[in-house]
Design goal:
7-stranded mixed sheet; 11 helices; 2 domains; 292 residues; binds guanosine-5',3'-tetraphosphate; 41% helix; Rossmann fold; Conserved Hypothetical Protein Ylqf, Chain: A, domain 2; 13% strand; two-stranded antiparallel sheet; alpha/beta; single chain
Length: 292
C-alpha cells in the first residue's frame, strides 16, 4: 500500500503561491481539524516565507472539541494563531476578520501613522484539496463564487473577492499537496475523505483507523455498533482482533454474505461513510500528545 507524492505537483503549486505572495497581506492556512498535521503541507513555512499567517482548523463540527483545543494550544506554542471553524455552517468564521486585523496590527498602525487610511486586508486561502477552501470562500463572500482554475504563470487576471467586513480574498485559492510518504498520514487522509477512495483500499484504511479509534473512542464505537470493546482487553497488535471489530461492524450494518460471513469490503465502505458523516460523533484522528 504505497501512495506516490509527486514532487512535480508540489513545485508547480509552490510557484503559483509564491507569485501571489506579493499581492497579499496575509495567508490563511486551512487545515482539517480532525487531522491538522496530516492535512498540512510540511513545506508550508518555506512556501509562505514569513508572511503573516492565520491557521484555520476547518470541519471542527466533525472533530473532537477537546482535541481541537489541544491543537490550538499546539499551534500557539509554534507562534501561530489557530482558529477552529466550520465553513459549512459558518461557526467561528465571524472571528476571522478581527483575528486577521490583529495579526496585521503593526502594519495597519504604521499606515495610520503615515496618514494612510488602512485599506482592506488582502488574503490568500491555501490548503490541500477537499479541506474546504471553496466552501470558506463562498461563506465569506456571502454568495456562490465561481472559483477559477489556476494557470501557471498567470496572476494578472487575478480577481479579488470583496467580503462584507473589509477582507479581500484572491479568487483562486492556493492548492497545496499533503505529503504522505508516511503511510499513517495517507490512511488518515483517506479516512477523512481528503484523498479519493480509489487510491487506498477501504479495508486497509478501516483496519488502521480502527486500530487508532478502538482505544480512543471505544464508547462511540460501542454505542453505534454494540461492539462491547473493553480497551484494556484489546490486543491491537493482533490483526485478528482488529478484523473481529470490522466483522462486528459489518454484522451490525447487515453486510452479510453466504454462510453468514461478513462482507468486509461493504462493511468498510459503510464504516467510512459513518465516520465522515459524523455518525460516530465528533472524532479526531490525531492528537498533538501522540506525535513522535
Ligand atoms: P476544497 O475547495 O478545499 O477542495 O474543498 P470544498 O470547499 O469543495 O469542500 C470539500 C468538502 O468538505 C465538501 O463536501 C464540503 O461541503 C465539505 N466541508 C467544507 N467545510 C466543511 C465544514 O466545516 N464541515 C463539514 N462537515 N464539511 C465541510 P462534499 O461532500 O465534497 O460536497 P458537498 O456536496 O457537501 O458540497
Amino acid at each position: 500500500m504505497t501512495i506516490q507524492w509527486f514532487p512535480g505537483h508540489m513545485t508547480r503549486a509552490r510557484r503559483q503561491i509564491e507569485e501571489k505572495l506579493k499581492l497579499i497581506d496575509l495567508a490563511i492556512e486551512l487545515l482539517d481539524a480532525r487531522v491538522p498535521l496530516s492535512s498540512r503541507n510540511p513545506m508550508i513555512d518555506q512556501i509562505l516565507k514569513g508572511k503573516p499567517r492565520l491557521v484555520l482548523l476547518n470541519k471542527q463540527d466533525l472533530a473532537d472539541p477537546k482535541t481541537t483545543s489541544d491543537w490550538v494550544e499546539y499551534f500557539k506554542e509554534q507562534g501561530l494563531e489557530a482558529l477552529p471553524i466550520d465553513a459549512s455552517s459558518g461557526t467561528g468564521v465571524r472571528e476571522l476578520v478581527p483575528k486577521s486585523r490583529a495579526l496585521l496590527a503593526e502594519k495597519i498602525e504604521a499606515q495610520r501613522a503615515r496618514g494612510v487610511n488602512p485599506r482592506s486586508v488582502r488574503a490568500l486561502i491555501v490548503g490541500i484539496p477537499n479541506v474546504g477552501k471553496s466552501t470558506l470562500i463562498n461563506r465569506l463572500a456571502g454568495r456562490k463564487v465561481a472559483i477559477t482554475g489556476d494557470k501557471p504563470g498567470v496572476t494578472k487576471g487575478q480577481q479579488w473577492i470583496k467580503t462584507q467586513d473589509g477582507l479581500d480574498l484572491l479568487d483562486t485559492p492556493g492548492i497545496l499537496w499533503p505529503k504522505f510518504e508516511d503511510q499513517a498520514v495517507g490512511v488518515r487522509l483517506a479516512a477523512t475523505g481528503a484523498i479519493r477512495d480509489e487510491v487506498l483500499h477501504a479495508q486497509d484504511v478501516v483496519f488502521y483507523t480502527l486500530k487508532y479509534l478502538a482505544p480512543h473512542y471505544a464508547g462511540e464505537l460501542n454505542e453505534r455498533y454494540q461492539l462491547g470493546i473493553e480497551p484494556d482487553k484489546l490486543d491491537l497488535d493482533n490483526p485478528d482482533d482488529v478484523v473481529a471489530l470490522m466483522e462486528g461492524i459489518g454484522r451490525k450494518r447487515g453486510c452479510l454474505i453466504s454462510g453468514g460471513r461478513v462482507d468486509l469490503e461493504k462493511a468498510s465502505q459503510l464504516f467510512l461513510r459513518d465516520l465522515r458523516d459524523g455518525k460516530l460523533g465528533r472524532i479526531s484522528l490525531e492528537h498533538p500528545g501522540e506525535l513522535g
